[in-house]
Amino acid sequence: MPTRPEDVTADWLTSFLAPRNPGVQIDDIAVLDSSQGAATRLRVRPQYAPGRDAGLPPVLFVKTSLTRRMLVADPHMYVTEVRFYEHLRPGLTCETPQVYAWALDEETNRFAVVIEDLSLRSATFPSALSGLTADDVEPLMRTIARLHAPNWGRRDLESSYPWLETATKGKAATFWRDTAREAFEIELNDGYKSVALDLEHHSLDLILAALPALQLANGEHPLTVLHGDTHIGNCYLLPDRTGGLLDWQLMRVANWANDVAYTIMTALDVEQRRAGERSLLESYLDELSSLGVDAPAWDEAWERYRQQMPYGIACWMVTPTAMYSEALLDALIRRCVVAADDLDSYAALGVQRSRSRRITAGRRAPASGSTARG
Fold it and tell me: How many beta carbons lie within 10 A of that of residue 16, not counting itself?
């Protein structure tokens, strides 16, 4: 695996692509742009030898780790992404980038994947600040349903995909149970996060009581294979109103509602969510049914949806400002907090708030505001 930018040469890219793209020969490459986050992302223009492009496009997107030190505490996330491309991507009909090559060093967890450059299909990449409407987000509901349908309700998911974490097992679940408080306290030193969270009504104790309850809820059937990180920044939209999903590093086996709710709560501002969340959930359920899945009844689906909002609060509270702008994080935290209040998410999880802010966990409350489907 390459570890420095100078390692990504024409010879390396040729040898990396050749096993799955026989006959390819690259004489030179130009790096069009690059960015560094948890992984390194490069857009490159290969100069193919005459007649040796093997059907590959004129621009490629390379994702790897061009640093001597891995920049994530849990490099298993890279294992997950590579194994997605190898084991799950071929059987999916949902929109996600075409992949041309992938590899993983099992000893170091270093990886590399080469996928299509979505700009060649005029894809747009929205954010929480893009001013999306429910109509904009609806294609993503259909895409998520197509992701979930093939593995819906299977009882052998953990044995079939032993490399996937679950809602209650794995490093992510352990983090939320055991070490999240420390991460919260560090991030609360950023004053704007304390204000966005509204600590008077969403205390740290309240959130930390909700997380294990949510883990248990998301470990209940029907289970499927989730993307696991469907915030709007990991989505894209195509001109034909197809929605796609990027970055498959946090996939897990869990209840379907986490993917659906996380997209809606991060994509839409408060008023757009209030106006459109029921129709978006309906679109997801209808797409499931069209794919032959025995979709949950409305009351069950609505309660599952209501339970998810503390997850968004927790995720964006522990996300360092260095990774996203203050404006973006502030918007995400605020809309997740309001969603949790609007939907009475803590009560849906059986976590009760008293006037004295003492938190107790009890039985889940019945769904509120539910209506018959249709």
Answer: 24
CA distances for 140 relative to 1, 321, 363, angstroms: 33, 27, 32
Alpha carbon distance 294, 311 (integer Å) = 26
**What pLDDT was estimated at residue 368?**
39
- Co-location of 30 and 171 in the same domain: no
Same domain assignment for residues 241 and 349: yes
Q: What percent of the chain has pLDDT over 70?
A: 91
Closest CA to 346 of 309, 304, 297, 292: 309
| Cα separation, 292 vs 139, whole angstroms | 19
Q: Is the same domain home to 92 and 45?
A: yes
Q: Are 94 and 143 in contact (CB under 8 A)?
A: yes
Hey, which residues does 35 pair with through a beta bridge?
Answer: 41
- b/e for 87-124, b at 16 or more Cβ within 10 A? ebbeebebbbbebbbbbbeeeebbbbbbbbbbeebebe
pTM of the model: 0.90
Taking the C-alpha atoms of residue 152 and residue 148, their distance in angstroms, rounded to an integer, is 6
Q: In the prediction, which pLDDT does 108 show?
A: 79
Q: Are 159 and 100 found together in one domain?
A: no
Which residue, 240, 16, 34, is CA-closest to 123? Answer: 240
Virtual CA dihedral for 233, 235, 237, 241, nearest 10 degrees?
-130
Give 124's DSSP letter: B
Counting Cα atoms < 13 Å in the Cβ hemisphere of 85 gives: 25
- Based on the structure, what is the number of domains in the chain? 2
Check whether residue 149 and residue 184 sit in a common domain. Answer: yes
For residues 139 and 265, membership in a common domain is answered with yes
Percent of the chain scoring above 90 in pLDDT: 74
Residue-wise pLDDT tens digits, 132-186: 999 999 999 999 999 999 999 999 999 999 999 999 999 899 999 998 999 899 8
Residue range(s) defining the domain that contains residue 86:
5-121
Q: What is the CATH number of the domain that holds 244?
A: 3.90.1200.10
In this structure, the answer to whether residues 223 and 146 fall within a common structural domain is yes
Sheet containing 165-166, strands listed edge to edge, beginning at the edge strand earlier in sequence: 165-166, 252-255, 223-226
Examine the domain organization and report whether 203 and 295 are in the same domain.
Answer: yes
Q: For residue 368, is it within any domain?
A: no
